[in-house]
Amino acid sequence: MQDMEGSLTARDRVGIQDFVLLDAYTSETAFMDNLRKRFNENLIYTYIGTLLVSVNPYKELGIYTKKQMDIYMGVNFFELPPHIFALADNVYRTMISETNNHFILISGESGAGKTEASKTVLQFYAVCCPSTRLLDNVRDRLLLSNPVLEAFGNAKTLKNDNSSRFGKYMDIQFDHQGAAVGGHILSYLLEKSRFLSTWVTGSV
Ligand SMILES: Nc1ncnc2c1ncn2[C@@H]1O[C@H](COP(=O)(O)OP(=O)(O)OP(=O)(O)O)[C@@H](O)[C@H]1O
Questions:
Q1: What's the 139 CA to ligand 1 centre distance in angstroms?
Q2: pLDDT by residue (tens digit) across 151-178?
Q3: What pTM was estimated for this model as a whole?
C-alpha cells in the first residue's frame, strides 16, 4: 500500500512520460501541466507515441554523456525514459533491419534547441557506429563542419544568442554494416539580410 502511494506520488510529481497515456489526452491544459511537471524535475523529454517532445532547459543536465549513450544503445524504444538517444538509436536500428532510408525531422520555434538536438544525434552516431581510421575521418568531417557553418551562418537574435540564420539538411550515408561512410550538409534559406545587419549592429 505504501509502495502504491509512493509511486502515485512520484507519478503526480514527475508526470507521465508518454502523452498518449494522459487521461485527458485532448486537453491542452493537461498537456502543458504534464510538460511543466516534468520540466520542473529536469525531465526535458516526453513522448507522444514515437514522437519526441523536448523542452530547452538552457542548462547542462549531464544527460548526453558516453555512459548515457551506452545505456540507450540497442535498447527497445519504450524500455527506458524518453531521450533523444532512444530516438536516434531506434531510427538507426530500423534503418539497418529494413535496409531503407529514414529521417529525423526536428522542428520548433527559434531557441527551442533544434541545432543542439541535431548535434546530439550526430554525436550519438559518431560514438555508436562502427569505427575504422577511414570512417573516423568521415565522422570528424561531419562533426567539425558544424562550427564552420555556425561561424558563417549564425547570429545573435533576441530569442537566441546563437541562432541559425539558415535551414540545414543533413544526410548521413551508412553501409550495410551500419558504418557511416559519407554524408552531406546542405544549407538553404540563408537570411543574408539579417546576417549582414548582424555584422553592422552586432545583433538582430
Ligand atoms: N538540450 C539542451 N541542453 C542544454 N542547453 C540547450 C539544449 N538545447 C539547446 N540549449 C541551449 O539553447 C541554445 C539555443 O539552442 P539552439 O541554437 O539549438 O536553438 P534552435 O532551435 O536551433 O534556434 P534557431 O532556430 O534560432 O537556430 C543553445 O545555444 C544552448 O545554449
A1: 22
A2: 988 988 899 999 998 888 999 999 999 9
A3: 0.88
ipTM of the complex: 0.98
Q: What is the pLDDT of residue 195?
A: 58
User: How many angstroms separate the CA atoms of 183 and 123, rounded?
Assistant: 14
**How many domains does the chain fold into?**
1
Q: What is the CATH classification number for the domain harbouring 38?
A: 3.40.850.10
Secondary structure letter of residue 46 according to DSSP: E
Distance CA 33, CA 56 (A): 16
Q: Whose CA is nearest to atom 18 of ligand 1?
A: 113
User: Is residue 203 included in any domain, yes or no?
Assistant: no
The answer as to whether 202 is a domain residue is no
Nearest CA to ligand 1 atom 1: 56
**Is 138 within 8 Å of 178 (Cβ atoms)?**
no
Lookup: cell for 108? 520548433
| Residue 97, domain extent | 1-194
